[in-house]
Design brief:
single chain, 50% helix
Length: 155
């Protein structure tokens, strides 16, 4: 159980660390959790849980959607390569989902109380994180004819 002074000083980074250490070993995709947590801690880690608000999540979302995507460089030193494309909405949804689960974990397992309720972002109401735009065009008759010649007629 956590006393009220700990609740005031525990940061987002500490909550994420607790979740990664205690829950990740029992999760099917627990290995991916540390990467998500690292990204979240870079921007939100220093915020005390008692001060975390939905507006912080909105700012995080907007900043992440403006970021360039990165991937591992394939070297042992752990370096990364920045890509030309932006971070996808799905990635940001995964990150915010991991944060929500971490907050739920410290709430349930460590007795953490959020004075204003656990902050979260409603994805259904947030058009920015809605599913991506689908196709923006259909194949032309010429393109369909070329595919048909290659693979045979389609029924």
């Amino acid at each position: 159980s956590v006393d009220s002074s700990t609740a005031q000083t525990m940061t987002v980074a500490k909550a994420l660390d607790l979740y990664v250490d205690e829950a990740a070993p029992h999760l099917k995709a627990g290995h991916a959790l540390s990467s998500l947590a690292r990204t979240l801690k870079d921007r939100l880690g220093s915020i005390p849980l008692s001060a975390l608000a939905a507006t912080d999540l909105v700012q995080y979302r907007d900043a992440r959607l403006a970021d360039r995507a990165r991937r591992a460089a394939g070297r042992k030193d752990g370096s990364v390569v920045e890509l030309k494309r932006k971070v996808s909405a799905a990635t940001v949804r995964h990150e915010l989902g991991a944060l929500n689960r971490a907050l739920g974990h410290v709430e349930a397992e460590h007795g953490m109380l959020f004075p204003r309720g656990r902050p979260k972002l409603n994805f259904q109401r947030s058009n920015v994180l809605a599913l991506g735009v689908g196709r923006d065009r259909v194949p032309s008759d010429d393109e369909r004819a070329r595919v048909s010649r290659l693979v045979g007629p389609m029924s």
